[in-house]
Amino acid sequence: MSVEIRYDWQNTEILAIYNTPLLELIYQAASVHRQYHNPKQIQVCKLISIKTGGCPEDCSYCAQSSRYKTEVKPEALLEKETVIDIAKKAKATGVSRVCMGAAWREVRNNSQFEEVLDMVKDVTGMGLEVCCTLGMLTADQAKRLEDAGLYAYNHNLDTSQEYYSTIISTRTYGDRLNTIENVRQTNVTVCSGGILGLGESIQDRISMLQTLSNLHPHPESVPINILSQVPGTPLENQPDVPFWEVVRMIATARIIMPTSDVRLSAGRARLSQVEQAFCFMAGANSIFSSDDNKMLTVTTPCPDYDADQEMLNLLGLEMRPPFQKQQAVPTPVTV
Length: 335
Known about the structure:
Number of strands: 10
Number of helices: 11
Low-confidence stretches: 326-335
Mean pLDDT: 93
Radius of gyration: 19 Å
């Protein structure tokens, strides 16, 4: 298999990669990873919920939907000073990207959006990459975020187009792709991936990867999330995703989108250090860490800064500085 950057991956090709014997798949993915990235570096990110709960959408997995009774209660938009304090603490530990999430269906041109723009400006001014996930976005709003200094915008596809309506009815797959296209009209990078464990089939996972890999360019970041089963949501009784299926998704994403950062995101807290090491070997090169043992809300546990630093030290890995692009390699590797 010749490893090169392609935007025409076919479903059957991706499925064949996914079904490669496991150790061979990990080896191939590790080889691709070393072609396009520094294998010693992991980007450590901090996710801040700047506006928690009360979302009008019906995403079946989400603790923040106003349609479900969960332990997450609606909160007001955080004060900018609070966000700055969290970002300062994160930076002091080596975090290079701060992601700010708001439980909105879409961005509205109001005073709250103005406050978010100010947060973006100030955290960017600290020398950190800033990512936002605020829901659907118009082209004009994307441009305003770019002008504020935004580095990345997250808008996950979640699952395949075919399975999507089973999980969410309040927006369409096309809505998600349209927001990504609006971001692409700026220089803001795209962060888009999905969630494992929604009840989807292997074919749904392959279809989602095909959609992502056929975007031109590929998303600069591809989060692989593992479902956190939240009591009160329709998916609270979903079975856990087998670990090796997580590794297969990471490795396949790495091979077909070789320059993207593959982010081991929600659900990492349930993985041992050995399991996380396998994920890094398979091509994951980013994690979310925390000062309060939660990733976004209390329903999604997250390892803390000290535990992650201990793990990285044990594995001989180092934190990647902000604004550092992947290493360029002029010729493809054959594996």
